[in-house]
Design a protein that fits this description.
BirA Bifunctional Protein, domain 2, Rossmann fold, 2 domains, 5-stranded mixed β-sheet, 25 strands, 27% helix
Length: 468
């Protein structure tokens, strides 16, 4: 397998309809991306696989879908309004702005020599807007910078409506917005992105055990869906690196940049698992308080409920601790794309194949007629396509726009696990009458072909596609 750089992935994504630059028709908008026909299927499958594992396969999880626009006080008492910022610098020569920790002061400036950078200053990353017809300070709102806060302020609502007991979690998938100073590296760092996030509420004293369990569980999820373990690392943040709300944080790092000479710089975060202690529920609770990193204390004078849970074992109201596994949908999607990309020599040509896990593959089956203008072949092919998609629930396509060899390569390149070819043997017009009502099924990864009876296709494919 050759090392794949980001440029190859970007080229494949545009060529085959995975991703396009946002607002491309008008020159684009930096930091925004549109998911195309195959991209939206892949992204939905990543989210579906996460939801299945995190919610459906557990007995201690509830789902939530919170509004993107929230009362400004939510982000005041979470600390975002005062502290959610990155250090920004300007180059006095070229007038460009950079995130201070993302620019090398020895880097060449377009105006000659090296950059002449200003001292760093904080830049708040939240997108500000107004709610209602009056655009003044009393009507300010923000596009949420993360999905977590909606979960925290709904803790009591979920607790009361489901009769849950601690430990339990709340899962959410949704959009978030950050006005990044320098969005870059394709969908790795964008201004509009999607998160898969869990807030898992536990009794104080059990948090460290749950934290360790969640780190292992989240690492294994990526491996089970096809990420090679050598491309995934656990990085436990040092004390000086921790966010002010964090008791401990482990970042799951993926090898997003394998072409970089320094191996340590090849890896960057795809997910973070944090032990947030009782910081968030205390911030948002009636009578609670926000404690900023500099020691500033802001009493909560606006919350209407105490965010506690009554522990019948101790007859006490307690503020649960929170373990937060937080993953980026877009970064996870990019990681699965990179890890599945393979190039191999087949005869005298290079075969590009995405070896995506069947659960993630945008298309599960492609049905291909050997002859596109033969009514009998086309009729059976389209009938198979309808059966597999409508009755079996697998995303299935029919394609007759090229020769069979080219059609195979096209499906390899987008990660389709199986291709079905309908030919003259299927009609009983070949040399072997026993092949009537059978088709050729080709495996993406091995390119092996097998004749399968049409009425056995659902069973045959179900055994190979699993829960896809």
């Amino acid at each position: 397998m050759s090392v794949v750089d980001l440029d190859k992935i970007i080229s494949l994504c545009k060529r085959r309809g995975f991703l396009f630059q946002g607002s491309d028709q008008y020159g684009g908008l930096q930091g925004t991306w549109d998911y195309g026909p195959l991209g939206v299927e892949l992204k939905n499958n990543v989210k579906r696989a996460w939801w299945k594992r995190m919610v459906y396969e557990r007995d201690d999880m509830e789902g939530l879908d919170c509004a993107i626009l929230m009362n400004r006080l939510v982000l005041k008492y979470s600390g975002h309004e005062d502290t959610f910022s990155d250090p920004m610098v300007d180059c006095r020569k070229c007038k460009k702005r950079y995130r201070a920790d993302h620019v090398d002061p020895n880097e060449k400036c377009s105006e000659g020599g090296t950059h002449d950078l200003t001292p760093p200053r904080p830049f708040n990353l939240m997108f500000k807007t107004t709610v209602g017809p009056v655009a003044d300070d009393d009507h300010i709102a923000y596009l949420r910078p993360e999905t977590a806060q909606g979960i925290f302020v709904n803790f009591k609502n979920v607790l009361d409506s489901t009769n849950r007991k601690v430990p339990f979690g709340i899962a959410q998938i949704g959009k978030a917005y950050r006005n990044e100073i320098t969005p870059k590296n394709f969908i790795f760092r964008a201004r509009e992105f999607e998160q898969m996030e869990i807030e898992f509420f536990v009794k104080p004293g059990t948090d460290e055990e749950w934290y360790r369990r969640w780190v292992e569980d989240r690492f294994n999820w990526y491996v089970q869906l096809g990420i090679r373990p050598e491309n995934l690392r656990k990085y436990e943040q040092k004390a000086e690196e921790l966010a002010h709300y964090s008791k401990a944080t482990t970042d799951l790092l993926y090898r997003f940049f394998p072409d970089r000479p320094d191996e340590n710089k090849q890896f960057d975060e795809v997910e973070g698992i944090a032990n947030r202690s009782d910081f968030d529920l205390t911030c948002h609770s009636k009578g609670g308080k926000l404690v900023l990193k500099d020691g500033t204390v802001i009493p909560n004078q606006h919350a209407v409920n105490k965010l506690t849970w009554f522990d019948h074992e101790t007859n006490q109201h307690i503020v649960p601790y929170v373990i937060e596994p937080s993953a980026g949908v877009d970064r996870a999607t990019l990681a699965f794309l990179i890890d599945s990309y393979h190039e191999e020599q087949v005869k005298e040509e290079v075969r590009v194949v995405l070896r995506l896990h069947p659960e993630l593959a945008p298309i599960k089956v492609a049905v291909l007629p050997l002859k596109k203008n033969h009514d009998g072949i086309v009729g059976i092919a389209k009938e198979i396509k309808q059966t597999l998609q409508k009755k079996c629930g697998w995303r299935t396509v029919y394609d007759d726009t090229a020769g069979i060899g080219k059609l195979y390569r096209r499906q390899d390149e987008v990660g389709t696990p199986f291709c079905i070819t309908v030919d003259f043997d299927t009609l009983g017009e070949g040399k072997d009458p026993a092949l009537a009502r059978t088709v050729t099924v080709r495996d993406r990864d091995t390119m092996a072909q097998e004749r399968v009876a049409i009425d056995q296709l659902p069973t045959y494919l179900a055994g190979r596609l699993g829960s896809a």
